[in-house]
Amino acid sequence: MDSKKRLCQKPPKTFKLLHDTAIFNVTKLWQNGSTLQVQFLNYIYDADGNKVNDPKYVWASWEKAWIGYIITDTIMKYANLNFVFHLDLNNTGTLPPGITPDIIITKNPKGGAWSYVGTDCLNYSKPTDQSAPEPTMNLGWLDAPYDTPFTFQGASYTTGTGFDQGGYTNGLSGTIVHEFGHTVGMLHELQTPFGAPFTFNRDATYAYFAGPPNNWNSADTDSNVLDLIDRNQKNGSNFDKDSIMKYSFPCKLINETGPTICSYIEYTTEILSNCDKYWLGINYPGKPLVSCPLASNLWPVITPTPGPTPVPNPIISKLFPDKISFEYILLFLGIILVIASTLLFLFSII
Fold first, then answer.
1. Is the model's pTM score more than 0.85?
2. Is 291 a domain residue?
3. 203 found inside a domain
4. pLDDT tens digits, residue range 252-306?
5. How large a percentage of the chain has pLDDT more than 90?
6. Shared domain check, 186 and 323
7. Dihedral in degrees, nearest 10, Cα atoms 139, 145, 149, 153
8. How far is CA 212 from CA 206, 207, 347, in A?
9. SS3 of residue 16 by DSSP
10. Angle at 304 between CA 298 and CA 308, to 5 degrees
11. What total of structural domains would you count in the chain?
12. Residues 181 and 70 grouped into a single domain
């Protein structure tokens, strides 16, 4: 599997992006306390790498501000990371002199919602081969509420009307938080190696995601749903049904049955769970830590410390040196027993 893949490609809109338990790939974490520069592009690239300009790819000022507003109030409250959102009020798509982006976000309504994971973003925002920077995230919709005033960076904004193209309808912006979860190193919970209480029916799952609106091939379904995450170099809680990083999907896709397990799978969570907040704080310490009620799995795995080496009994050691095997000891005792039995017999007939 590509270690630098992007997650949530063509996300499922019919049952929406739910989200999975807080699992972090510790090899892709940003340096704690990092300041990450966020750029918004007003164009996209086609399959051949050509720039495509179109009004539908241009960010509205309130859209950029809303993304910054949401992440400041969620991810940045619990992780010791500072995202700097360059709102570019003149909408030129450029950054101030001397600033290079760490995160580059495009707005392609038909491109789904996806992000590269953690520091993999730097392979695209700051390529080392002199190629042009590429997007590290796409947000095809924002899940923002309609006609709602808010303030960000000291300026007042009002959300638009009629802009949603999928995802949530109540305006909690779970898609934005989910994708930025990937950006800080979080992975999909449904693929957790930490005790998921269900198993997928693979044939049903392939068939479901192969249909519209996802139209995923088997590799897409494997990557986003079926492939379990390698336990190595991962931090996280046991399965967290409330995590922002979990998908919701029909219960018919799993082998287990019953109302409890189906309730874990089918309902949508749209905010950071307490365990999401806890692991953000564990992996990026420096903010107040929220408690997580679930068992933790911390990398590196802590193995029990061996107890003290038993001290040999000096008397036994003299009688039976280390080089004498246990079998020889038994043989020696057997011979003594035979001799003793023979002597007793002889004494009995005298």
1. no
2. yes
3. yes
4. 998 988 887 787 777 777 788 888 998 899 889 999 999 887 655 554 443 334 4
5. 32
6. no
7. -30
8. 12, 10, 98
9. coil
10. 155
11. 2
12. yes
| Residue indicated by tokens 């306390």 | 33
Cross-strand partners of 137? 105, 115
Q: Are residue 182 and residue 329 in the same domain, yes or no?
A: no
Q: Which residues contact 188 (CB under 8 A, 6 or more apart)?
A: 7, 19, 20, 23, 224, 225, 229, 245, 246, 247
Of 232 and 25, which is predicted with more confidence?
25
Tens digit of pLDDT for each residue in 71-106?
Answer: 999 999 999 999 999 998 777 778 888 999 999 999
Q: How far apart are CA 64 and CA 330, in angstroms?
A: 82
Provide the domain limits for residue 239.
6-297
pLDDT confidence of residue 327: 56
User: Are residues 319 and 185 both part of a single domain?
Assistant: no
Do 62 and 160 touch, CB atoms closer than 8 A? yes
CB-based contacts of 146, cutoff 8 Å, min separation 6: 159, 160, 161, 162, 163, 171
Asked, for residue 19, whether it belongs to a domain, the answer is yes
Q: Strands 82-85 and 35-40, how do they pair?
A: parallel
In a domain, 78, yes or no: yes
**DSSP codes of every residue in 233-282:** TEEEES--TT-TB-----GGGBS--SHHHHHHHHS---S--HHHHHHHHH
Cα 244 from Cα 269, distance rounded (Å): 6
Does one domain contain both 259 and 331? no
Phi-psi region of 277 (alpha: psi -120 to 50; beta: other; left: phi over 0): alpha
Q: Is 196 helix (H, G, I), strand (E, B) or coil?
A: coil
